[in-house]
Structure formats: structure tokens, C-alpha cells
Amino acid sequence: MKAFLTLALVLFTHNLFAQNRYIVGPQKVTFRSTPDNTGKIIKMVEVTTKMKLVEELENGWSKVTDKDGTEGYVVSRFLTADVPYIFLYESLKKKNEKLQEKFDSIKADHTKILSELQTANTDLGNTKSALAVSRKEYEELKAGSTQYVQLKEKYDNLQKEIASTENEVEQLESQVSTIYIFWFVAGAGVLVLGWLIGLTTRKRKGYSSQIIID
């Protein structure tokens, strides 16, 4: 059913446009009220004027209507179904103007896109440069972080060694102090012992002398 309606619409449209006729001839053509040369001239019709064919008569005349709907007759040989070149020219001119407008619009869009592309390429280059700098700084920071970790580890180890050494020094100092005290006591003991020995020796000498005298 749909296909049938489509076909009917196409045929109707074809017949409708097929009724269009155009005035041809070397000069203006008479548009009469009756299909003969005695009919009243309604007006003179310019060449290339579009008329709508109502009926083509056998006597060489055709019944037509103009753009205002006025009905009349013209000689059939002054009618043609071929579209005049002036109409084709005007139609092509309008199409060309539309195409030119479309082309200008596309050209403007193309120029805009090129400008945006250039800006995007510039931004991309700047971004790549910034990325390269950031990557370099990251690598330097990464290397510095590694060095920092290594140095901190060495520092911590040295701190431990220093603490251990200080502990050993304290122990040695404690031992030295103990040794000094021991030496002092030992020296004092030696002096006291020497004094006692000397004292004892003198007493013995005095006693011996006393015995000998008696």
C-alpha cells in the first residue's frame, strides 16, 4: 500500500511539472480570450514566460493559465516544455551562490580549524617541553632521594658507631679511673709499708745497740 501511494505521488508530481510550458519565439506572443486570431488580446506575453498547460487543442492553439491564474489561449508552436536557458542560468546561479556561501563557510571553518590546530600543536609542544623538564627534575629528585637514603643510612651507621665508640670510651675511662685509684692506693700502701719497715728497722737497731752496751 505504501509503495502504491509513493508511485501515485511520483506520477502526480511528474504530470504536474509536465504541464509547465514556456513561451518561445522571436518576440512577444499574444495571449487571447479565444483560440483564434479574432479573439480578444488579453495581454502580450514575454518570451520565456512560464505558463500552465490546461489543454492542447487540435486547431493549433493551447489553453493555458499564467502565474496570476488568468486563463487564455496561445498558439501551440509558441509553447515548449523545455526550460529556457535563462531559467536554467538563474537556477544554476542560485545554486552556485549557495555553493559559494557553503564554500566560504567551509573555508572559514577550515581556517578556524587550522588556527586551532596550530594553537593545539603549540600547546602540545609546550606540554612536551614541560613534561621533559618535569621528567628530568623527577629523575634528579629520584637520584637525589636515592643518595639521601644512602647518606642517611651511612649517617645512621656512623651514629651507631659513634655511640658504640663513646660507650667503649666511657668503659675505658671507667677502667682507667679504677686503675688510677688502684695505683694511688697501691702507692700509698707502698709508702706506708716502707715507713713501717723503716720504723721497724730503726727500733731493731736501737735494741741491738742496747744489748751490746749492757
Could you describe the 3D structure shown?
- This protein is α+β, with helices and mostly antiparallel strands.
- It has a domain at 2-83: SH3 type barrels.
- Helix content is 68%, strand content 15%.
- The protein has two helices and seven strands; from the N terminus they run H-E-E-E-E-E-E-E-H.
- It has helices spanning 2-18, 85-213, and strands spanning 20-23, 29-32, 41-45, 50-56, 61-65, 71-75, 79-80.
- The strands form two sheets. Strands 6-5-4-1-7 form a five-stranded antiparallel sheet.
- A hairpin with a 4-residue loop joins strand 4 (50-56) and strand 5 (61-65).
- The longest helix has 129 residues, at 85-213.
- The radius of gyration is 66 Å and the shape is rod-shaped.
- It starts with a helix and ends with a helix.
Q: Given this structure, which CATH class of the domain at 2-83 is correct? A: Mainly Beta
CATH topology of the domain at 2-83: SH3 type barrels
Distance between the termini: 179 Å
Number of DSSP helical runs: 2
Number of strands: 7
Largest sheet: 5 strands, antiparallel
Could you give the order of strands across the largest sheet?
Answer: 6-5-4-1-7
Secondary-structure class: alpha+beta
What's the average pLDDT? 80
Low-pLDDT ranges: 4-17
CATH superfamily of the domain at 2-83: SH3 Domains
% residues in beta strands: 5-15%
Shape: rod-shaped
